[in-house]
Amino acid sequence: MKTGLISKLITGLAFAGALAVPAVARANGDALELDFDRVLGSQPRAPRDVPAPTQPYVPVTPAPNVYTGGLEAQLAGLASAERGRIGVAALDLATGRTVSVLGDQPFPMASTSKIAVVATFLDGVDQGRWKLTDRFPLMIPQGSRKFSSTVAPVRPGAMISAHGLIELAITRSDNPATDALLAVVGGPQAVNRWLRKAGISGMRMDRDIATLVRDDGEHNPATTIDQRDSATPLAMVELLGGLYQGQWLSPQSRNVLLGAMGRTVTGKRRLRAQLPAGADIAHKTGTLFNTSSDVGIIQTPDGRAIAIAVYATGQGGKPQRDARIATIARVVYDGYQTEASSVRRTASR
Asked: How many other CB atoms are there within 10 angstroms of residue 326's CB atom?
């Protein structure tokens, strides 16, 4: 990763947490990441509005294209719903300029929800409820049939420091590590309470990760909007922007979260794939049946920060979704850079 302001946030404490994770746990995390980020199939369709929760999409006449040019028009073309819904939101944190396509429509959060889980835990650290050195057990999923119970069974696993759990949950998208943190904070509803306290609407968590993975595939996100465990792209961008700007966490906790996001090893073909040399990124990926996502903070070489969230469904498969996410990220990056250059030229006259 290129050196930038985000990478400078990484403290010695962040690296200590990673070293505290046993090698066997890291290996298990890799296997679980592959399991969680599997692709079960693809059924492209093109919903263009928000139906009731879990109600199959009924085709409607699309609204006229309101984009007449510029960055919004480019994104609207790239995020066409012809092969499955794509939701995009981006925020230039220097200017407040926001762009979005289906920005207020819910999409499956998948593992991007882990940002909110970790933020909830770190808020508890700031309040003195826990320490990063406290040790908690991994929550290992046990075999059970799909939809056979409200909550998938888990068992306690290896004891790992809270900082190690954060490192696994964010950098490797480890599910037992995330569920360990969820168990500590009080489950999905505790995350929802933290989101409401932070003023974030349009985002909700309903299940732990073990249950989410076990019951994955119940609905096709390209043709159905399931409100459970969902976020709108605009809500996610609001969360990312607030975390980056230090609105809800102490500087130390903010650095732990952003530092881990800066070391993410998943999603090499998504947001980061087409960014130019000199750009830095701290991000979190998500993948479930027929849906892929990547959300994060892009740091430009001149020190500007862009919060971005891209949720893609359908498109013909995971490689096509990844490619679309990468292309959208580059268009957003170039569009904001062009606008910033134009502003600088105008101001210098």
From this structure: 21
